[in-house]
TrEMBL record:
Protein name (Swiss-Prot/TrEMBL): Triose-phosphate transporter family-domain-containing protein
Top-level taxonomy: Eukaryota, Fungi, Dikarya, Ascomycota, Pezizomycotina
Domain of life: Eukaryota
Keyword Membrane assigned: yes
Residue ranges annotated for the Sugar phosphate transporter domain, each copy included: 47-331
Biased composition (Basic and acidic residues): 1-17
GO CC, alphabetical: endoplasmic reticulum membrane
Chain positions covered by the region annotation Disordered: 1-35
Primary site of residence: endoplasmic reticulum
Length: 356
């Protein structure tokens, strides 16, 4: 991780944003199709990262349910998560776990825009939730893999196999059944929810490009550079939305010691989840991350059943089985795709191949 700063030169005058978004910046030999970065990582490594990502996700979900409870201040919670990531990454930087890359003004601008995208995505999701039912919001979020494929097809000209497309169908439809319920939405709510889905996918793809494209920042450096900006923006939103004033009114003597401990634990778990999420995005790819988001919804329902006695209907259970089966199918297709691309003669696209 620390070798990034030593091997990257940032002195050229090219438009950095164009480097991040334009696939033509990476010309390939005609006879050797490009192997995307996620296909250069060993299967064991990828599965390890995905397993840790799910573990962090589940741990934070259980902790929030059992310890933190209902903390009705989403912007303050976002600020806590971003602030925890800033402090955690800075501590790792001081311990020499990674080094900072010297960036140009244009490159720093890209990261500022990325942090704004992060904040706007949260704001859109928060506003839309007040205009649609939770089941409708969940079924809309389940379409993230579809939009990820569209972005890669239209923007990066990446072509997937027919089996990959087919494997995504049960992943999306299964989550739709698993979260089936009373669907309610206003026209504005529908538009904002759809916009939130698109922004969430763009954020996931942009995160991957920052770590695997022209900038090639490490996950920890990306998180360190983005988190303070996201923290400041979340605090501003908390002030403008009245959350901070409401929190002060409800806690005139300040948060209790129990609340402080609960928030500190939440911040620590959120930091671990953010590090895991960024690292997994780099090694597994943005499309796989959107599939993981769908599986996380099913796992959350399963956790509710196992730990909290949540009741679900037959269609919900059937949907979870379909989604999990689709995820297994998608995983097998990806493994075969990796093997096929590695077997192509000289088919290395953006760096050294890592053998399984």
């Amino acid at each position: 991780m620390a070798s990034h700063g030593a091997r990257k030169e940032k002195g050229d005058d090219r438009d950095i944003e164009a480097q991040l978004l334009d696939p033509r910046q990476y010309p390939q030999p005609p006879a050797s199709p490009r192997i995307d970065s996620e296909y250069q990582v060993s299967s064991l490594t990828k599965l390890s990262y995905l397993g840790l990502y799910f573990l962090c996700n589940i741990s934070l979900t259980i902790y929030n349910k059992l310890i933190l409870g209902k903390f009705g201040y989403p912007w303050l919670l976002t600020a806590l998560h971003a602030g925890s990531a800033s402090v955690g990454c800075y501590c790792l930087l001081m311990r020499g776990q990674f080094t900072l890359t010297k960036l140009s003004y244009q490159q720093n601008t890209v990261l500022v825009l990325f942090s704004i995208l992060f904040t706007v995505n949260i704001a859109t999701s928060n506003v839309s939730l007040a205009m649609v039912s939770i089941p409708f919001h969940q079924i809309m979020r389940s379409t993230c893999p579809v939009f990820a494929v569209l972005i890669y097809r239209l923007r990066y000209k990446r072509v997937y196999s027919s089996e990959t497309y087919l494997s995504l169908i049960p992943v999306v439809l299964g989550v739709g059944l698993a979260t089936y319920g009373d669907y309610y939405f206003t026209t504005t709510g529908f538009v904002l929810t759809l916009l939130g889905v698109i922004l969430a996918v763009i954020k996931t793809v942009a995160t991957n490009r920052i770590m695997t494209g022209a900038l090639a920042l490490s996950p920890l450096e990306t998180l360190l550079r983005m988190s303070p900006l996201a923290f400041a923006q979340a605090v501003v939103c908390a002030i403008l939305s009245g959350e901070l004033s409401e929190f002060r009114r409800n806690n005139p003597e300040g948060p209790s010691r129990m609340m402080l401990f609960a928030l500190a634990g939440n911040g620590l778990l959120a930091f671990l989840l953010n590090v895991s999420s960024f690292s997994t995005n780099k090694v597994a790819g943005a499309l796989t991350m959107t599939v993981c988001g769908n599986i996380k919804q099913c796992l959350t329902v399963l956790l509710g059943i196992a730990l909290f006695g949540v009741k679900v209907g037959f269609l919900n259970g059937l949907g979870m089985a379909i989604a999990l089966g689709g995820a297994a199918w998608y995983s097998m297709v990806e493994l075969r795709s990796k093997g096929a691309k590695k077997a192509s003669p000289g088919g290395i696209g953006s760096g050294p191949q890592v053998k399984s």
